[in-house]
Amino acid sequence: xxxxxxxxxxxxxxTLPIEELAERLTLAGLEVxxxxxxxDWWDRDRIFVGEVVEVRPHPxxxxxxxxxxxxxxxxPMAVVTGAPNLKVGDRGVKVAFATxxxxxxxxxxxxxxxxxxxxxxxxxxxxEGMVLSEKxxxxxxxxxxxxxxxxxxxxxxxxxxYLGDTVLHIELTPNLAHALSITGIAREVAALTGxxxxxxxPILRGVGEPAERQVTVEIADPDLxxxxxxxxIRNVEIGPSPFWMQRRLTLAGxxxxxxxxxxxxxxxxEIGQPLHAFDLDLLRPKAPGERPAIIVRRxxxxxxxxxxxxxxxxxxxxxxxxxxxxxxxxxxxVMGGLESEVxxxxxxxxxxxxxxxxxxxxxxxxxLKLTSEAAQRFGRGLDPELPPLGAVRAAELMSQxxxxxxxxxxxxxxxAPAERPVIELNPSEVERLxxxxxxxxxxxxxxxxxGFGVVATGRGTLSVTVPTHRRDxxxxxxxxxxxxxxxGYDNLPSTLMAEALPEQTRNLSxxxxxxxxxxxxxxxxxxxxxxxxxxxxxxxxxxxxxxxPDPEQYIRLANPLSQExxxxxQTLQDAMLSTLAETYRIAGRAMLxxxxxxxxxxxxxVLPGEPRxxxxxxxxxxxxxxxxxxxxxxxxxxxxKGIIEALLDRMGIRQTSYEPLESPTFQPGRAARVRADGxxxxxxxxxxxxxxxxxxxxxxxVALAELDLEAIISLATTLRQMEPISRxxxxxxxxxxxxxxxxxxxxxxxxxxxxxxxxxxxxxLFDVYRGxxxxxxxxxxxxxxxxxxxxxxxxxxEVARVQGRIVRALxxxxxxxxxx
Length: 820
Hints:
By secondary structure, the protein is an alpha+beta fold. It is built from 20 helices and 41 strands.
């Protein structure tokens, strides 16, 4: 937001240096990003207010004239100009005039190229000065004609003294909608500096038939339009607005158009109420012979209208429209319609000042990809008491500067007047939250300076009535924040806490989530963060040849920024594979993981479940490329399984099992499901070739896992069980057995552990063999079995007995046989 200081001074006295004022505003939450000084480079000795005393024809050029300019020197100066708005015979025109040596902006070059004005001859006529356009002064991009100053501009005054100004560029957070106007900023300045606030107090001086007899206003959807005010102005004369208004609009960043449009923009910037002017003669009644009608209603699905930018818009049934008796004439709070716009031929105006529900305007603006100054203000939520003031102020200005005749009264549809919440504030609450005690009268003065109504209750508290323009205030803490802003956070003393810090509770779930990250980083993986939104086509790539994902099973965004991100994800796998492909393309290797939430609809519930998931992806060779090292094998299923085992072991989850998994996402025979304590912890495997191709992954093994992080955290232990190291030697023996190919190795290991009892310390599968010496349909599994007792050295006989027990258990349970 651009705030010209000269405009601000109309409503509050500025007693601080501009730099200090900017700092005070910033500390109060209104961040001043830039202090722009208009005209600070204008040369006081070479650029003046001038007056054209004579314009005569150029002897050698039809399109040029010779202007004689009085700029306060002893003698006027004759200069050559081709400005189209300066004609032979003109006199008394006030202009900005520069003499030779002045630095100005080149009006015919792109950008802001500075040049030094030099004496010259133009078609044989000497010219030692120049009448300036707005672009040459850096005021705007207009350069087709000279800038004309008001008739009362003092001749000979340095232009910097007459037109120089300072503009504050203020960045406002969404909760500060009340400050999105010059008077809103003035209220903040008055509160910060203790100065008196001077607000506009317009008076409606009506003539003729009352407005309520000339038009009807109906609000069909008051939930989206709490208030609609209409004023009638007849016999307006469309023309340029006064110089001072154009100047203020330009400094505030808006382009002057004509007096009617400029007045609506001016009032919006001045008090924060957006306005819209309709050509009254183009508004249709509900029935022939009736008054023109304004109906505020939801659009009918598929209804269309051409907006002021010439584009035909199509609406859905959640958008709010302003309609007349024949159809739409404006999009509520966003933009007017082309058919009812004010043109040079307009004579009678219906002026709209309304209050629209902020979420409705915001949604409509986003859905139509159409924004405006009005939409930005309505989208933050405005004061429902502001429309009458805006309508009267604009009507007053149109009466003065467009010679309009204002109809008496306003048409004010206000079905449910806004309530003003009352909050009871104890001064001790201010001290508790800010750490500094302030007397009740000081607190009352601060709040009253911001527009709050404050009454002492007699119980030591303050009864605070919240003004309608402060919809962001609803709690005592909000009032304390307002006191702190104005008192100055930089004025709060540094004090020790009066009490000890309360005992801090540890969030074990977050601690274990972070431990998961640390473990995976320790395994050489890098963390990624992807979007929570995806699309059905991306998810469908995980199931080649299978049924497409059901759109009804996904939560769809009402207004997605992109169709590539239009549903909430239910898996992390597609984003992981896309990231693996991109990372491999750049780096030639990728070991990645992501911790994130998925969004699963819950029957009968409005909000979805949001469980946390862990996704791991591997692609590339086992080791990075390095000099003197052989190229390693590609990462595969067993590398991923090792990472999962390491993770679960470090999380204290030891009794895990793995079982084969059939899934269209994974390669048959190269996928598994991992369980612990009866719970499924997740799935992992090597990605199916068709899935690899769909995600543009290389033609090599790609390993992918998705684990239930909630389940892992629920089974994790924070305390490690320790036991003393045995002083007695261990005995290791190999055992090779032949089993059916369908028997999982994990099942064999389970039987070995159960039969081995406490003396079996470790069992490790070290060889899998299929070949001529093994019967068809069978496989040889070789295990290294380690035996150890905590209290003695085991004898060969003890080891043999346990080994025999294991063999018998395998034979009886799995039909296994010893390999010769």
